[in-house]
Design a protein that fits this description.
The protein is α+β, with helices and mostly antiparallel strands. It is built from 22 helices and 26 strands. The longest helix has 35 residues.
Length: 660
């Protein structure tokens, strides 16, 4: 018995020692967990309990100068998943793959992740979310969001730019004003149990997102429409590579319109170009990006070209300001001039201009006249004005990718180079530089910084910041500016810019045609045709520059193909701005002669009525809402009425009896 008792005693002591050691070890472990590593485990526990869902902010809206929306936000959603709540992960991944058009394996990794909440997809449209809601998939979370939307697709695409997948601006004003437009996201933080249910009496925190500021541009939607319509027509009619138009308010530097064709759809900027569809998949990602970047690049501020004769406005203004030439000074054009042993031709060398005044030289765009003016100035003085007008430096317009142009160092300029620059060769400019400089010439000499944005406002309409017009410098005097306006007006009334003439309005301007240079040589058959015009010439409200790159039609002269485009934009714009026409006596007489009387055509046969209208130099349109009439149908009514005085070419609406 004694042996058994000892054996039991040893076992009891062993168990006691074991439990004592185990208790000691547990105590040490608890001490380590609660005291030594307590903060770390507490943080991990909080992370497991906490559901932190970001609340996206709404991007600021972009308006034109009159409050019309150019870029806004469309409803969208962000979709998250809580993997712990997903029971049949295979089935859920398959469903999400079919609805969201995403890779199933990627989705499988998301729904199986060892995380509380995982993002599935952003910028999902309402219809797709509706489908997923109807499937009642447990573990999915839908968070209200928005995606950028451009109501008019490719309207003013190079001004507006576009955003990426995360609603961040990538180009245009979307990029340059990103920090103002983007806003700050909010957060919804709450404590949940393992089933995702909010813990009672937990400390929930909701941080309201701060929406971005709204941006008001200087662009006028109506004038932008005028410019885009004119540019589109010019692109087609002249079979051109590209057409660019800028409309500027000279007194403020405000960009009222900037239209470039071809362009791209802001809602789908990464659409594969048609000419690259067949080879797109075989291209590297770098090659694909470079191809898209060529489309996104804004030619109005990024492309440089030799301005040709439009640059003669700079030479003329500098010569007049320095007093080396006067409007009535006499020159003689023999068709060419020899400079440092090299013969430089006038564009009309086959039929020289002969004796002409300086003003006539500008009208005729005569190269020898401008060569002599530059020689009188000397390269140092001439360069002073080139730089003062802003060439060789960015204009500081608030758009990405602005180029400086190429202005050679003055020390490398010899007599031939000086002569070439005087008529716009051997120097490259951007369209925005040229229109800014010409605006200064007609704006009493004041060079304005181009302004694309007017102000930033909050959602209540309060102005947060205003971008004021900025005078860079005064380059020429008011007197020289006034003289230049008169001379440039005569270019339209008597010279090469006649295609821009608008009855009732004083229009001034200068044509330009320049051969394109590639790899240091001029390329036969490739030209840049341009015209810069302004009106009214006595008090300019708008300056318009049109540049036609590589026209492929019957003509490539700026005076032939660019002037009608500028005329269209100026004419539409002045009438929209309610600038009343002021006809000269000669114009009034001409317009009066063009008035015709509408004949009585009611109760006539349709074919006879049409013939009578055409005889009276009137057009017609059939009103066919009730059915198509026959040629022998009777005319029931007409608009305008008989005996009304109208202009030639007025459309008379005919209401004829329909077929029975």
């Amino acid at each position: 018995m004694a042996g058994v008792a000892k054996k039991i005693k040893r076992r009891v002591l062993f168990l006691l020692a074991s439990f004592t050691l185990l208790f000691f070890l547990l105590t040490v472990r608890l001490f380590q967990i609660q005291i030594v590593n307590g903060a770390e485990y507490q943080q991990k526990a909080i992370e497991q309990w906490t559901r932190d869902v970001p609340i996206p902010s709404k991007r600021g809206i972009i308006y034109d100068r009159n409050g019309k929306e150019l870029a806004t936000n469309a409803p969208a959603y962000e979709i998250y998943v809580r993997p712990v709540e997903v029971t049949d992960k295979e089935s859920v991944a398959q469903t999400l793959s079919e609805v969201l058009k995403m890779d199933k394996e990627t989705l499988m990794n998301k729904v199986s992740a060892n995380k509380d909440t995982v993002i599935i997809k952003k910028k999902v449209d309402s219809d797709t979310v509706k489908i997923l809601r109807e499937k009642n998939i447990k573990g999915l979370i839908f968070v209200d969001d928005s995606k950028r939307f451009y109501p008019q697709s490719n309207f003013a695409s190079y001004v507006l730019g576009f955003t990426n997948y995360d609603n961040q601006g990538q180009d245009g004003v979307e990029a340059t004003f990103e920090k103002y437009l983007n806003g700050f996201p909010g957060r919804d933080i709450k404590m949940t149990d393992a089933q995702g249910r909010e813990l009672p009496e937990s400390d929930r925190k909701y941080y309201e997102p701060q929406d971005g500021l709204n941006l008001i541009l200087t662009i006028d939607e109506v004038i932008q429409h005028f410019a885009e319509k004119a540019v589109e027509n010019a692109l087609v009619e002249n079979k051109a590579k590209r057409v660019t138009a800028i409309v500027m308010e000279p007194k403020t530097g405000d960009i009222l319109a900037m239209a470039i064709k071809p362009d791209y759809d802001n809602n789908n900027p990464r659409e594969v170009p048609e000419d690259l569809i067949d080879q797109w998949d075989s291209m590297s990602s770098t090659e694909q990006y470079n191809a898209l970047f060529k489309i996104w690049r804004n030619p109005a501020i990024s492309d440089t070209y030799e301005p040709g004769s439009t640059f003669k406005t700079i030479t003329a203004a500098a010569g007049l300001e320095e007093g080396v030439v006067k409007p009535d000074d006499k020159f003689y054009c023999s068709g060419s001039v020899v400079v440092a042993g090299r013969r430089l031709k006038c564009w009309r060398s086959y039929n020289p201009h002969g004796s002409e005044s300086f003003a006539e030289g500008v009208q005729n765009s005569c190269n020898p006249v401008f060569i002599e003016v530059a020689q009188r100035l000397g390269k140092e003085k001439f360069y002073k004005y080139i730089q003062a007008f802003g060439f060789g430096s960015p204009t500081n317009i608030k758009l990405l990718g602005e180029a400086s142009g190429i202005v050679r160092n003055v020390n490398s300029i010899g007599p031939v180079e000086l002569a070439n620059i005087s008529f716009g060769q051997g120097i490259t400019v951007t369209p925005i530089q040229l229109i800014t400089a010409v605006s200064a010439i007609v704006n009493d000499g004041y060079l304005m910084e181009p302004r694309i944005a007017k102000k930033l406002v909050d959602n209540e309409g309060n102005t947060v910041h205003e971008f004021q017009p900025r005078v860079v410098r005064q380059v020429i005097s008011k007197e020289t500016s006034a003289t230049m306006r008169q001379i440039l007006e005569s270019v339209v009334t008597e010279g090469s810019g006649g295609g821009a003439y608008i009855p009732g309005y004083k229009v001034g301007g200068k044509t330009g045609t320049a051969q394109k240079a590639e790899n240091g040589r001029y390329v036969p058959g490739k030209y840049v045709s341009s015209f810069v015009g302004f009106a009214p010439a006595n008090d300019p409200k708008v300056v318009v520059l049109v540049v036609i790159d590589e026209p492929g039609g019957a003509s490539y002269y700026g005076g032939v193909i660019a002037t009608p485009v500028v005329k269209s934009i100026i004419s539409d714009t002045l009438r929209y701005l309610d600038v009343k026409p002021q006809y000269t006596e000669e114009e009034a007489k001409k317009l009066a002669k063009e008035k015709v009387t509408v004949p009585e055509i009611r109760n006539m046969k349709l074919k006879d009525a049409i013939k009578l209208l055409e005889q009276n130099k009137l057009k017609y349109r059939l009103e066919e809402e009730q059915g198509e009439p026959e040629q022998d149908s009777l005319v029931l009514d007409q608009t305008p009425r008989a005996n009304a005085k109208v202009n030639e070419g007025t459309v008379v609406i005919i209401y004829a009896k329909p077929k029975e």
